[in-house]
Amino acid sequence: MPIVNLRPAPLVKSGELNREAIEHYSASQNDPDWMLARRLEALRVFRDTPAPQRSDELWRRVDLSTLKLEQILTAITSNSSSATMPAEVPHPSSASGWVAHVNGTSTGTYLNPELAQQGVVFTDLATAIQQHGDLIQKYLMTECVKVSDSYFAALHGVYLRGGTVLVVPAGVHIKEPLRTLTRMTAWQPDSFTHTLVVLQEGAQATLIEEFTSDPVEGPAGNSSARPPQVLVNGAVEIILGKDSQLDYISLQDWGRNVWNFTTERAHLYESATVHWVLGGLGARFTKTLLEADLLGPKSTALLSGVFFTDSKQQMHIDTQQNHIAPACKSDLLYKVALRDESRTVWRGNIRVFPGAQKSDGYQANRNLQLSPRSRADSIPGLEIEADDVRCTHGATVGQLEEEPMFYMATRGLPEVDARRLMVEGFFAPVIDRIPLEETRERLTSEISRKIG
Amino acid sequence: MDTSIWFEVKNLHVSVAGKPILKGLNLSMNAGEVHAIMGPNGSGKSTLAYSIMGHPNYTVTQGDIVFEGKNVLAMKPDERSRLGLFLAFQYPVAIPGVTVANFLRTAVNARIKATAAAQHDGVLPADVKSISIPEFRKQLRDAMRILKVDDSFASRYLNDGFSGGEKKRAEILQMALLKPQLAVLDETDSGLDIDALRIVSEGVNILHERDPQMGILVITHYQRLLNYIRPQFVHVLINGQVAESGGPDLALQLEERGYDWLREPEPEVK
């Protein structure tokens, strides 16, 4: 069945998503010329890209029939510069640096002067586009995430706004984690947040990103109003030069009116290492495409994930581990807990390209079903075109077991506490990989709050 | 109900998956006493332990369990625990991802809250505080010393990858922190070498010295545990009933003679 609302034709016909509208949008962002040109090119690609179809394997299990994309895009085009700022704008604390955004607009950045002196760039996307254009236009949606990737990547290329740029020069090691906080107020219609990380040869850094929405409340006197749909269409680009090392932690806790489409990709050159923790708790609907491209020999991608859904949340996570060069290692562990009538689909693929001998690839997806009405699908896949490789996968769907629950009860734990411990314990091996205690605790307490 | 008896199991019948295991078991204990339940495999020893704690797969078809005048059978397992009953499992269950310290602190706090709520008609007063972290650490360290386990024990995932001996020490460690009134020790000696057996038994004895009012029900197949934890009363369980009760001598007698002399002769089939 075709997905009616996602065909690009009606959007263009409505007169909103055309050249003039994007020029206007670009002007509101104070874009330099090259950025305007990028947006218009993205627009051209977007118009030529068919909307997701259920006949496409990637979208087969996804129902977008209730997404009102055209309405959302109309609201963006007419609203782009009128974001209402909340009175209080907290920012994360970090000795190395932080970037904070509300509704796609930066509300402050900090970078330790010593790091700035060493040539580190860590700032909000708008500032990076305006002040570091020469440095970043080489990378921004040119080699890692491209507008030609998909319908949503193209749409992102048109509107990208807000986000974080980190460039670490060769040999610089940043010890304390850098942090970002990206926040939406309740009635903001969209986020097109973009993260670009470039580590040059031998550089090391840790970046922790948190994405949140303010709780949705109806407008005064009309608390029963349903919040409008919100579109998050983000992208993450990670480019890791030879011998560089990145710890990247990204925690998503968007509001329950958010439709979240993100494209995230890492390019790893020789002997580079990424340890990538993806956390997903929020949003009504999520479709994330995450890919690690092992382009240089002996590069390593460790991919960890924590996902916890409730009510009628849906999360669709597609991962791709591409072994392109020989002697690389990839190791994925995604853990999913589901409550109520929520639904998750993980599709994971390890692809070993011809000539990528001595590849070592692993993927595991563990699902904990807390309610019989929830549904977790786990679809691992291997495509191997080299002969000297070691690739394995494992996927499980389990429930809370009776014996541990009884054991904990005999210690006086009420059922809700026992469930909380079981779920915390289920996630612990992944959460323990987050290098900042404050973030670990925040995530644990969010999980605990979700258990009720 | 007769409230003068501290702990009483009366005419208890329990079935597992429809099969009767306990067939009219009677047992009574006073506070502070140590009783031993002995018996051959399959006589219902572990069934008694699980039934006292309320395992959902053990169905009580008849009889009562009364503790300090309260009808235990009407309570859920967690309520029984907070009432003061404790079971050291024969096969402790692993809780992956949950550290010994986190688990015990959660359990101690659940007790504090439930006790406070029970004293205020089920409403948790706002001023109830969790155990302070220094106080908890102090208690945990003390218990770990008694059981001769390393400090790193606290940060390991509970029973996950523990050796047999570590699991049994972890059970008694929990007993030390939860301070039950009646502790049921189900085959605590199984899987222990002689040194571990001594440490675990001494741990139990130290806890009993600190709280002489605590009752202990030791379930064991072999007499050797009773050299360390000395019972005043020994009961022999055969085919779901107490076939014989006596003093400590009874255990020695069983060691020599086995259980067969206590079995009822099989009815003759003609």
What do you see in this structure?
The complex is a heterodimer of chains A (452) and B (270). Chain A is α/β, with parallel strands linked by helices and 452 residues long. Chain A has a domain at 401-452. Chain A contains 11 helices and 20 strands. In chain A, the strands form 2 sheets. A 10-stranded mixed β-sheet of chain A has the order 2-1-5-8-10-12-14-16-18-20. In chain A, strands 3, 4, 6, 7, 9, 11, 13, 15, 17 and 19 form a 10-stranded mixed β-sheet that branches. In chain A, a hairpin with a 2-residue loop joins strand 1 and strand 2. The longest helix of chain A is centred in the last third of the chain and has 17 residues, at 415-431. Chain A is globular and about 65 Å long. In chain A, 52% of the residues are buried. The model of chain A is unreliable at 1-15 (pLDDT under 50). With 270 residues, chain B is of the alpha/beta class. Chain B has a single domain (7-262), classed as 3-Layer(aba) Sandwich (Rossmann fold). Chain B has 7 helices and 10 strands. Chain B has helices at residues 45-53, 77-83, 100-119, 133-146, 164-178, 194-210, 249-257; strands at residues 7-16, 19-29, 34-38, 58-67, 70-71, 85-88, 182-186, 215-220, 233-238, 241-246. A 6-stranded mixed β-sheet of chain B has the order 6-7-8-3-9-10, sandwiched between helices. Chain B has a 4-stranded antiparallel β-sheet with strand order 2-1-4-5. In chain B, strand 7 (182-186), helix 6 (194-210) and strand 8 form a beta-alpha-beta unit. In chain B, helix 3 (100-119) packs parallel to helix 5 (164-178) and helix 5 (164-178) packs parallel to helix 6. Chain B is globular, with a radius of gyration of 19 Å. Chain B starts with 6 loop residues before the first strand and ends in a 13-residue tail after the last helix. The chains are: A alpha/beta (452), B alpha/beta (270).
Topology:
The complex is a heterodimer of chains A (452) and B (270).
Chain A: H1 8-13, H2 19-28, H3 33-48, H4 69-79, E1 97-102, E2 105-111, H5 113-117, E3 121-124, H6 125-131, H7 133-136, H8 151-159, E4 163-168, E5 178-184, E6 190-191, E7 194-199, E8 204-213, E9 230-240, E10 245-253, E11 258-268, E12 273-280, E13 285-294, E14 300-309, E15 314-323, E16 329-338, E17 343-352, E18 359-369, E19 375-384, E20 389-399, H9 402-409, H10 415-431, H11 437-451
Parallel strand pairs in A: 1-5, 4-7, 5-8, 6-9, 7-9, 8-10, 9-11, 10-12, 11-13, 12-14, 13-15, 14-16, 15-17, 16-18, 17-19, 18-20
Antiparallel strand pairs in A: 1-2, 3-4
Helix pairs in contact in A: 2-3, 3-8, 9-10, 10-11
Chain B: E1 7-16, E2 19-29, E3 34-38, H1 45-53, E4 58-67, E5 70-71, H2 77-83, E6 85-88, H3 100-119, H4 133-146, H5 164-178, E7 182-186, H6 194-210, E8 215-220, E9 233-238, E10 241-246, H7 249-257
Parallel strand pairs in B: 3-8, 3-9, 6-7, 7-8
Antiparallel strand pairs in B: 1-2, 1-4, 4-5, 9-10
